[in-house]
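Narrative summary of target 7.
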Amino acid sequence: MFWKFDLHTTSHIDTLLEKDDVTLTEVMDEEDVLQECKSQNHKLVDFLVRPQCMEDLVGYITQEPNDDVEEKIKYKYPNISCELLTSDVSQINDMLGEDENLLMKLYSFLQNEPPLNPLLASFFSKVLSILIGRKPEQIVEFLRKREDFVDLMIKHIGTSAIMDLLLRMLTCIEPQQLRQDVLNWLNEEKVIQRLVDMVQPSQDEDRHSNASQSLCEIIRLSRDQMFQVQGCSDPDPLLATLEKQETVEQLLSNIFDKEKNESAIVSVIQILLTLFETRRPAFEGHLDICPPGMNHPSFSVNQSILDAVRPRLKDFHQLLIEPPKKTVLNTTWGVLDPPVGNTRLNVVRLVTSLLQTNTHIINQELIALNTLGVILDMYFKYLWNNFLHTQVEICTAMILAMPSTQSESPEINRENDQEPIRENILIKHLFQKCQLIQRILDAWGSNEKEQTEGGRRRGYMGHLTRIANSIVHNSDKGPNGTQIQQLISELPEEDRERWEAFTSGQLADTNKKNTVDLVNTHHIHSSSDDEVDFKDSGFHQDSSIQQAFSDYQMQQMTSNFIEQFGFNDEEFADQDDVGDIPFDRISDINFSLNTNESANMALFEACCKEKIQQFEDAGSDEEDIWDEKDVTFAPEAQRRPSSGSTDSEESTDSEEEDGKRDPFESTNATADDRMEVDSGDVPEPSGWNSPNTAADAERSWADFSSFTPVSPKDPLRSNSPVAMETSIETVDPLGTTPTSPRGKVEDGLDPEEEPVSDRITETVTNGSMKETVSLTVDAKTETAIFKSFTSLSSEALTAHRVPF
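Modeled conformation, tokenized:
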């Protein structure tokens, strides 16, 4: 790596800090100033903690930059100053947290008039937050001495960074006793009441939103803290103040006793929804407010909250009928006049939370107001608002599955000798007053009629299917099954028959389509080119296998999960570097080989025969050309010097070139057919340079007039597909009867005469054809004569004259 050779560059800051007149801006102009500060460069840290430098750094984040500065670099130094002050260097934290003058200059930012600069406010909040975490005792003591601190925080609550700072004071203080002191101090300063006063129509939307979010976070943080610190006997004073009846009544009074303001109404409802978060196990079909698989404490709703909300139920009901004025909304499918709006949607959510408490007096009030009927009217009117549809589905599923309250009197008896069943007044209201069954059947029929006429499917049909399934399920297995069955039996005969036909026909068909097994369905294909038949891909249909896989996915991670996950680094290291890697995993390898290779062997043999067939003639009974053959040489060839070998090799090369030509072409050779032959050790005669006469030219060319067939019993030269046999003979210069190597007399030639020429004979075997080629070198006539003949023909095939 590069650090082995010390190639890293030295920071210019060290050189810069050696100057006596270096300024803070010059240091902050360096690109690596933040990196050097976080790495605690001693020279740089000593420079930054100088009193004047610290004062300048705080001034950059608390004072507005000059307007004449270019916008591009206007907030450059404030940003760098904030990063330097929050780099979590102990010397800087000590200097800033223990110097009251610096803290006062930092605190002075809150004394500016609203609205605050949001960027500078974020710098201020970040610096003060890290001081609260690192120096909690000093910072809390300093802030408690400032009598206007809470007033200034509430005054600037419309700035999100100030809201974050308030929440930091509740979460970043680690000592439990100090945190309890801070809570008591903030409660004495009436921070909850002041935040409640911010949520009223006279304030702007930013204050509504931030004040509401602050109160909601205080509720959640306080409840979570109570659960985590179970041994703490002191209650949370802020949470206790929020749950008081007068506090909730003040919230409701802010939105109902004054003009209707949607922002204020929604903010108050958000606070009430947070107070109603009981974190109880959800009913079947109810969307749980807690993430699945996590266990949260169960908090009961304070009765004082319900007592404060119950008198205002009629006001919430009126909001459903007459919401704050909204402009007409044009959509792609029609005009909404008026649209649902955020107000009515949050009121429906509030009704859902009130139903979850299952309080008898609240249920009776909702029934008297017919709030559920109004909500159902909205469900079927606004076809495409799935937020509304989801809340209505939750309401119906909750009502069908919730047990009856203790205040409700028993009215249903199975038999005289059996225990009476309490009546759920909400279910009775839903089936009789709201006519839920009839409205489901009518809406389903209208949707099918529109679809048959070419219209689109209504947006609430999916939720309507789930509502119908909830009714069927709870009538069979729910805690109110007997009451639901009785209410269905009390329906008019026509409606009852329609419902029975619907559940056994259309609803069953829809459920069948919606529960298609996407893994094992063969008629569902991928859109890619490589389509896979999932039915044959090995996915098992056993539910136990699927359950085991689901359990595997949901299993808890152990502490050594990270060490066991993935592969060992040494598995990917160079084997030259890691020589001691044990073969621990060899024994774990489990594989099987199919030893029945007869089919593969037969296939291989067939392929080989098909490829070799091109070298053989069809129907040939000759010997196998691939068999190994012995190579034999005549004695003269063995005694011939190296020059003869050269001539033989060149002759063979010439023969191979001539073999490429048609064996039946004319014997009239052209100039391109001539072949140069190395004379080797043969001396050059005196008349070599002038073979230009007709006689010389006639003697200089060989004429193949006949050839002698070669016996197939002659030894082959090699085991190649084209076998050759080489022999050397001596002939007379006139090309008469040759003399055999053994001195045998042929055609009357005296064997004692000295041979004056050499003959090299090559026998080539190709399949059933054998061809013999002889080369005769005549020193006197200065010619080399080639002769070629085959055993299948009695006349010469080729004749070429080669100049010697």
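The mean pLDDT is 74.
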